[in-house]
Structure formats: structure tokens, C-alpha cells
Amino acid sequence: LLPAEAEALVRALQGTELRDAGGKGWLRQHECVEKLNMHAILSTSTGQEQLLTELLVSYAKIPVLIGELISVEIWKHKIFPVLCRLEDFKPRSTFPIYVVLHHEASIINLLETVFFYKEICESAEDSILDLIDYCYRKLTLLAARSTNGQTAVLLPPQELQKQAETMEFEISLKALSVLRFITDQVESLPLSALTRMLNTHNLPCLLVELVEHCPWSCREAGKLKKFENGAWHVVPPEDQVKMTKLDGQVWLALLNLLLSPECQRKYHFDGFNKSQLLKLRAFLTDVLIDQLPNLVELQRFLSHLAVTEPAPPKKDLVLEQVPIIWDHILKKNAGKWEAIAKHQVKCVFSPTEEELKFQARRWAQTYSLDMMEALAPNKPRCGACGTEAAKRCSRCRNEWYCTR
């Protein structure tokens, strides 16, 4: 995007009503998010992402994006189940439903890309509490997946079930990265945000659960598979002890939450929390520490914790803030879930043939072939020999080759 285009898209971002999800105005907003998302990924790969972060901060759009994220999450769990129970809900196409479900993935991906910067985290202001709560809910889903082998998701029509499960898993992994970036800024977070992470949600113990069960790793037919760059890969024996990016995110978040003096003053190191944290000692092997040397400090902290009784946190008077976005949406729409679902059946999820064609043309412009190739994590491979390919068949536009 040109700087003027990026600025226009950022300025166009605005909060939408729950009942408008999937509507024409909402779809235009989704297109803005998608274009900014792709722009953020490409800009980061070339080291030119500073412009977008400045625009999001100066136009105060991070709270808007967080509000959209929470809105879609509530839609999934409050409106969609009601929608599926309605007798007259017989969508001609799953396309509008898929777009609403995908909206959450687009926003969390954009936030993951920009939250690396301290000014972005600070510009979230009070909405950071909603984002912390959101990440906590997603990490809880990951922990549940690690214990029962699947992600707890809503039950959409059969053809969307697999896509919904995969998307929920990937969204949860993005939320883990966002949370880690938030913990990087513990020194500048509002007091209530720190209290919420440490004591309301007890994130250190939840992160221990993720270290212990590692939901992005599994065994199939005797082979170890790990999830990385959007896909499951078989890990060769020599790489099985290598730390993945997701492993690193968990360990870095733990370092931030446990070694910060401010966090140590606020966290309740009671008997249960202490026993959970000491489980980490079994995972702090020399091989792991070689890959992330900062873990030596965590190892020392845990050794000290094992033989001492930390002083209880001070009983300060704390006026705890509540997440305003989540509460506002729930209060505003309480008792209206069925009415909203009926409105959406009539106005959103029964598109005409012409409306579907029009929207398909708009998406074709948003997701151009060249853009999708630039975003792909893996380079195209030759269909004959499998080496990296730079030429593509001009007829089918699908097959790649390295030489004639």
C-alpha cells in the first residue's frame, strides 16, 4: 500500500454493532482489516512497518481493533448457536459465515504483527484489559486441547466444522504471541493490567500448563509432529530438542512475569502456585538453556523459590478495573440474541446470486494472486524436481518449474 492508502484504510476503521456482523458496511470494514493485515506482514518482512504503527497510534485505532475482536468472539458464542437453531436458517452459501469467523483471525494476526512495539501496547489504554482477558480465554482453549486432544469450539454446519477447529487453534496461537508482547511491557502497563494477569487469571500457572502439555506438538504413527508456520511438520530426530517459536513465546512470557520485580511483589506465591512453578525445573535442560540463555536466570529463581518462603504480597488497596468492551457489548445486547439472529438470517445469511457474485469480485481484488504469493511462508517448488522455482506455467497459472 502507498502511504496515503494505508492512512485512508486506518482512518476508515471504526467500531461496528453486533447485529451488523456480515452486513455490507461490516464487510467493507473487514476488507480494510485484511488489506492492513497483508500490508503489515509485507512491511515487516522488509523492515518498513514503522509507518503503519505510527498511523494506528496517532489515530487511536488499537482500541477499535480490540473492540472488533471482542465483538466477533461474542457473536461466535452468543449469536451463532442461536442462528443454527432457527428453522429458517438455510444459508445458500457458507461464504458469509466463513468471512465472519475469519474476521477474528485477521484482526488477531494484525495485532500480533504490530504489538511488538511498545507504543502500540501503550496506545491500547484501558482496552488492554479486554485484550488480556481475550488472550487468557484463548490460552485456556489451548490448555483444554492439550488434555482432551481437541479444541472446544462452536458447532457450525458440518462443512465448516474442520475449518472452524483449525482456525480456533491458530487464533489461540496468535493470542499467545500477543500476550507475550504485552508481558514485554510489564513496567509500563497499568496497575490493574498487572493484577489481572497475575492474580485474576494466574497466567504463570496457565503458561506452566502449556509447557507441560505443549499443544502444538503431537505424535502420529510413532513420529513427532510440531505446528509451525501454519502447518504440522514431521520433526526429524536430530531436531526434536530444538525450541520452536511457540515454545520460545511461552518461556519469554514466563521470564517476563516471574523475574520482573514488580510482578514478584504482586504475585501470590502460595503453596499451589509454588508447586506448579517448580514443575518448570524438569524442563530447564542444558540443551534448552543453550538455545535461550536468559533461562539461566529463571533456573536460579526457581532454585531459590524451592528453598524459601516468599513474603506474602502487600495488602494494598487496589481499585480493580473491569474490561469495559466485553461488559458494554453484553449489557447492550442482553436478551436480544434471538432477535439479532433472526435479523441476520434475513439480511445477511441469505444472499442473492448477484450479491454473492459482487462480493466474490471484491474479494478477488483484495486477494490478488501476486499478493498471496508474497505472503506465502514457503517459496514455490518445481513440479518435476522439487527445487525452488521462479517460473510459473502461463496457461494454468498453478504449476511451477525451475528450468525448461
UniProtKB/TrEMBL annotation:
Annotated PANTHER family: ZINC FINGER MYND DOMAIN CONTAINING PROTEIN 10 (PTHR13244), ZINC FINGER MYND DOMAIN-CONTAINING PROTEIN 10 (PTHR13244:SF7)
Domain of life from the UniProt record: Eukaryota
Name of the protein described by the UniProt record: ZMY10 protein
GO cellular component: centriolar satellite; cytoplasm
InterPro entries: ZMYND10
GO BP: any one term: motile cilium assembly
